[in-house]
Amino acid sequence: MEAYLPALSFVFAALVLVPLAWYFRAPNIAAMAIGIWLSVTNIIYAVDALIWASNDNTWAPLWCDISTSLITSSYLALPAACLCICVRLERLASFSQMTPFVAKRRRMLSECIVCFGLPVLYTVIHLAVQPHRYDIYEGFGCRPATSPSVLSIFLVWVPPFILAIATITYAGVAGWHFVGHGVQFARDSGNSSTSSLTCNLYIRLIGMAVLEALVSMVMVVLKMWYTLAPGLVPMEETSRNLSEVLVWGADAMASVRTVLLVEWAGIVVQSALFFGLFALRMDFIHHAIDQVRGVPGFFDGWPRRLRGGGKTDRGIWVDSSG
Q1: Would you say residue 282 has pLDDT above 60?
Q2: Is residue 200 pLDDT above 90, yes or no?
Q3: Using CA atoms, how far apart are residues 136 and 38, in angstroms rounded to an integer?
Q4: 3-state SS class at 132
Q5: Membrane spanning segments where (predicted)?
Q6: 20 to 30 A from 143, CA-CA: which of 70, 83, 197, 286?
Q7: What are phi and psi of 198, to 5 degrees?
Q8: How far apart are CA 213 and CA 205, in angstroms?
Q9: Residues 121 and 101 sit within 8 Å (Cβ to Cβ)
């Protein structure tokens, strides 16, 4: 793998964590889940690319077990979180849900279950169609293994596809309600001291959820196509050996390299969308500009503080060595 690919993954792994503090204050569990899953997946792809940069050795089995399980969970977690966002926005725009404390707590609990509990269950179900422990691709690292069977279609590929379709459907309904109640929504959200959801943020959240779901859908179709390309194999004829590792060396990478690159690019695109739509907030831009402008002043003050014998605005540095 090219050197810039893991570098980009590390950069986006950090960038997608930037909006989490704001979403935590909102609170928006589903949006936080998207950032967490994207960051974890980016870190896995980057670490794998560095470890297996020019080799296909079967080392770090525990890391591969954990990382492939998390990658499998992310297949369902990302569209599930997008669906939670659109369901919430649809209810807000249709004024079918108010926000008392009990309802808010119930919503947060349900989003935690859908965004984190459901992907774990999905990973456990994936074991039923897992032919061997995992695959190792030279230059890319560990990836989950899925058997090319009819059962795999319904247990592995159909669920995230359905969630992505449901996300787009709910986004359409939410948009229709928003157009119908846009003026009232703007007035109510503007007058509420507890509401942090503006019309601009509402539109960007819908856009983010739909775009993330579309990319997830493309990734699911790509993975399913590659897995099923050799042809369907009946489950009774599928060999299962969960202690076996399938290694793909450089000589066998021609047929799968493009698929792995597109899979990596999909996560990078989703990360860019997640961070980019958040960064378009004007208060975020103004805050970032203020922080950048304050950097020279921060460094200019250090010589004065040192000449002042360690005095600062917050107190005095004490030498504990004496």
Answers
A1: no
A2: no
A3: 21
A4: strand
A5: 6-24, 31-54, 66-87, 108-129, 149-180, 201-226, 261-280
A6: 83
A7: -95, 170
A8: 12
A9: no
Q: What are the Cα distances from residue 133, in Å, to 44, 48, 67? A: 17, 16, 12
Over residues 85-92, the mean pLDDT reads 91
Tokens linked to 210: 């739909």
Q: What is the largest CA-CA distance in the chain?
A: 79
Structure tokens at 75: 């297949």
| pTM of this structure | 0.84
The whole-angstrom separation of Cα 137 and Cα 73 is 20
Tokens of 88: 């919430």
Taking the CA atoms of 302, 308, 314 and 319 in sequence, report the sign of the dihedral they define.
Answer: positive
Residue 226's Cβ-side half-sphere holds a number of Cα atoms within 13 Å equal to 17
In sequence order, the β-bridge partners of residue 134 are 245
Mode of pairing for the β-strands spanning 241-248 and 141-143: unpaired
User: DSSP class of residue 315?
Assistant: E
Q: Could you tell me if 147 and 228 are in contact, meaning their C-beta atoms sit under 8 angstroms apart?
A: no
Contacts of 258 (CB under 8 A, 6+ apart): none
